[in-house]
């Protein structure tokens, strides 16, 4: 039992580190983040919080090289995102599309746009009102992993659903 | 800056012109036997010759005609020499090898002294400073023909603009010897980068073609990328995220005032370039995941859609006459280059080699298209004819991209980025034959160069 508990704490620590990292990476998006509420004693977030969305449901999906089709894993994550967005109807979201560094700069902008749009269309197909979802591409301008091999590239080929604090009134 | 011609130097007094010519011809024959690289006829360097040998030249230290002008005269001499040697097609003979140095700019040169050291071209000059005003005079000699190449010239400018005056002299020398337009008195707009790879800050900067006189046009509060000069160099158009979304902005280089091209809600706009008359902009709009190319007439604000396909169409570049456009598209399944009439018509694919092709740029001469090629994990800068024939790759590295042409269409600058967590971009230049790869000095990491026009 003690062993199990320490594993849970480690996961939470990683999740918080990942959150800080992503906030830094998103500074270009012009969106603000709500102040993270403290995790409760069980190490989980308030299910209606953006932190629950990004950490527990998962705010990102990954893509194959030069692709924008959603994998089965991606659809599962997006199903959770759609459910959360419909439950928490006062939030809007900006979907960021990103590419890895293999590719020319402007092509990667177009590719990032495709990826963001693929996520948006899927969320809309699951019932999220289109008017609450904006898309933006960053091409290869905002990598989160900096090495020059596939272990980093796969993390950078992503679409991230960023919950905006500017909730609908 | 103004310039005027100085008349050809008259033949030395008391010597019949004919005798001088005969003497020169005799000396030429002698010198020709001594120096294998000397050619008959007027001095001419064909820079497109694949077997070109750098042409040896001498530049006499420019004479200070006014007290206190010595420092500037020396700096101007060095910038002219650096411009010429930087082309890779000229080789400077060090002054330590000189047999003699002209006593003054006004005196006739002793050709034999320059033939002895195999200087095929000799540049002499003088600099005068009066307050803020600088006067630079120069003459170019075809040493083995024993005559001036073109007439002497006098340039008048300001002390602040002394480097431009040196570049103008070097442009004249380059043009007279190669028959090509010059490119030294030009500027480059680029993206200056700071910070780690996962938090890179970018801002627009402008510099002389040789990296001097860097000025920043924007701060680094938001991402900017892929700037392009207007045809006369007065404005720069680029993509900015300062609204949070990619938008096209134009900035006036002089006043730094900015304008944003309006787009519809939900649209993203990027990859802008001016038309050759500066009146319109072609660029990409991405909406609903699909990217196509549009044109906006700036005075009227009228938008025209140029491509309409479900594939990616971006990175357009207009032919110098504005009638055609080259762009990249993945309509075939991956990124390739296409040419189409701007007035409408079917795009014709022009890239057929292995790999992917992007960021095409039409040469200002109209004869070639430069591009980025990605193949087998490497990136290349290459050139091809506008019909796609005669493809040649000029560079290879982990990541080379975004070529831009010199004003005379003979040199390319591009971005080269090194790999890994500490990877950073720098600007390099290479000539169109693939020779003379050089790093352009910048204060820090730099990317996305756009080479502006030759300045008036």
UniProtKB/TrEMBL annotation, chain A:
GO terms for cellular component: cell outer membrane. Keywords: Cell cycle, Cell division, Cell outer membrane, Lipoprotein, Membrane, Palmitate, Signal. GO terms for biological process: cell division. Pfam families: OmpA (PF00691). Part of the Tol-Pal system, which plays a role in outer membrane invagination during cell division and is important for maintaining outer membrane integrity. Belongs to the Pal lipoprotein family. The Tol-Pal system is composed of five core proteins: the inner membrane proteins TolA, TolQ and TolR, the periplasmic protein TolB and the outer membrane protein Pal. They form a network linking the inner and outer membranes and the peptidoglycan layer. Residues 1-24 form the signal peptide. It is a lipid-anchor. Residues 51-167 form the OmpA-like domain. It is found in: Cell outer membrane. The gene is pal. This is Peptidoglycan-associated lipoprotein. Its main location: membrane. Gene3D superfamilies: OmpA-like domain. InterPro entries: Bact_OuterMem_StrucFunc, OMP_bac, OmpA-like, OmpA-like_sf, Pal, Pal_lipo_C.
UniProtKB/TrEMBL annotation, chain B:
InterPro entries: 6-blade_b-propeller_TolB-like, Tol-Pal_TolB, TolB_N, WD40. Residues 436-456 are annotated as: Disordered. Residues 43-149 form the TolB N-terminal domain. It comes from the Bacteria. Its main location: periplasm. The Tol-Pal system is composed of five core proteins: the inner membrane proteins TolA, TolQ and TolR, the periplasmic protein TolB and the outer membrane protein Pal. They form a network linking the inner and outer membranes and the peptidoglycan layer. HAMAP family: TolB. This is Tol-Pal system protein TolB. It comes from Histidinibacterium lentulum.
